Amino acid sequence: MDPSLARRSFVGVLAATAAAGSSGLLQGAGPLAQSLTAPPPDRLRPFRFAHFTDVHCFAERRAPEGFAAALDHVQAKGQAAEMILTGGDLVFDSSETSLGEARDRWDLFNRILKERCRIPVEHCLGNHDVWGWCTAKCGSRGDEAEYGTGLARAQLKLGSEWRSFDRAGWHFIVLNSISPDPKSGCGYLARLNEAQRAWLDQDLAATSLPTVVVAHAPIMSISPAMSGKDLATADNVNQVSGGLLHLDGASLHQVFRKSGRVKLVLSGHLHQIDRCEAHGITYCCDGAVCGGWWKANANHAPPSYALIDLHPDGSFDHRVLEYGWKNA
């Protein structure tokens, strides 16, 4: 998430969340391994995966070494993850650079994955993974094959910006949170477009499996209310930036609730850690592999990732782990 990008606000998200009966627990930047209870030793673990969000890979700030350290940690004997599910913002930055620079950063990201990762990886896209929307900075025309998500999809060999797959008796839905802001040449808004929304309805209707959803920007999160300026004003009881939180979060929650299948919704983007639960659906914002953009930053989560165990009965265990990397 880049706070310099243009944002638009919407009214009532937090009020709607409260009306839906949400309860939240904010996790700070303390010992994250203790943020949630570890899986009981007597429960079988059919499938364990890691949520790696906001890697922000580029050549500076020792980012390559930090990314490699995170990959080594998640594949260590004690973690034994069977898959990595990324959460977007994989490179830093594709959205405001030339095509050549963007390609170099994707090449670096892919080279580190090839050299250090031995388990399957499934990818989600974020706002920093888009190329060409900022025409002045990117030198783009708008008709290039790489424009928008084209470069990221080619680099990651993705056929679509959104998709689903099944693994170990669970259904996974990967969404694309990022849409261009029609009122800003470089800005974005967190929401699904009409085609993706129609696809989501069909996809959920077609599965009978417990479901995990991943999106880059949070669909529901309490972190926007815990940082920055107070949200309550005389004119707007509650307001949250559409660049921080999904504009369509309330309606998406109703879609998830109606399906009866969605158990866990994962996100990143904010570089914060929190957990919200409503109507049997858990929303987890899982910090950032890069912490504060590979710099020491007390206002954001330390370098970390989430480890999730999925069980056959539709339950799960979720932990956020620091992997020992300290940003300078």
Structure, explained:
This protein is of the alpha/beta class. The chain has one domain (9-28, 46-312): Purple Acid Phosphatase, chain A, domain 2. The chain has seven helices and 16 strands. It has helices at residues 13-19, 63-74, 99-116, 135-138, 150-156, 194-205, 249-259, and strands at 9-11, 23-27, 47-52, 83-86, 121-122, 163-167, 170-174, 178-180, 188-190, 211-214, 239-241, 262-267, 273-278, 281-286, 304-310, 316-322. The strands form four sheets. The protein has a seven-stranded mixed β-sheet, covered by helices on one side. A hairpin with a 2-residue loop joins strand 13 and strand 14. Helix 2 (63-74) runs parallel beside helix 3 (99-116) and helix 3 runs parallel beside helix 5. The radius of gyration is 19 Å and the shape is globular. The two termini are 20 Å apart. The model is unreliable at 2-37 (pLDDT under 50).
Give a short synopsis of this structure.
This protein is an alpha/beta fold and 328 residues long. It contains 7 helices and 16 strands. The relative contact order is 0.22.
Uncertain parts: 2-37
CATH topology: Purple Acid Phosphatase, chain A, domain 2
Q: Beta-strand level of the residues, as a percent range?
A: 15-25%
Strands of the biggest beta sheet: in what spatial order? 2-13-14-12-10-7-6
CATH architecture annotation name: 4-Layer Sandwich
Main attributes of the structure:
five-stranded mixed beta sheet, 7 helices, 328 residues, alpha/beta, single chain, seven-stranded mixed beta sheet
